[in-house]
Design brief:
Elements (H helix, E strand, L loop, with lengths): L2 H14 L23 E6 L4 H13 L3 E4 L10 H13 L5 E6 L3 H7 L7 E3 L3 H9 L5 E5 L5 H13 L6 H16 L7
Parallel strand pairs: 1-2, 1-3, 3-5, 4-5
Helix pairs in contact: 2-6, 3-4, 5-6
Length: 192
Amino acid sequence: MTASEATVRAVVSRVVAGLAPTSAESAPSSARSADLGTPTIAVGADHGGYALKERIGFRLKEAGHTVIDCGTDSTASVDYPDFAHAVARAVAAGEATYGIIVDGAGIGSAMVANKVPGVRAASCYDLSSARNSREHNHANVLTLGAGLIGDGLAWQITDTWLSTPWGEGRHARRVDKITDIDRGYRGRHDGP
């Protein structure tokens, strides 16, 4: 190994150190999701979520996922709607199975993403909301607040969200109603 390769490996190790599993954790369950295969995941963030987006993207690639990076590419100030919209468009267009967006609180990006027809974005802050949003609401976009949760919890939420299957059954009727409302407003710009 050359000196420059050693330097790059050391930098990468430091970048992902905040998301490294403890010895008590097993391999990420998202990597074991046999029924889902390895979905393509679009990721995006504003400047406040950039560092966390980079770490999550790295971990997703390590788990075998294809990752579409919708930006941003630095901590320079940008507007979260641009990146949330890019991720939501990728999911709605079928370019990505799921989307993950990181901003300061996760709320604004969820609002933007939910404006895109076919997107069901959920802002999650704990493992219960991550499971519920997938199992009950069939969420296809996850938003995270980098300013509100730590790196370790962010990865646990992401991993739980990706590995929780859609519950269907009694939940399907309710999600169908969400879809019907969505379809009812497509093409309308005059509001409710």
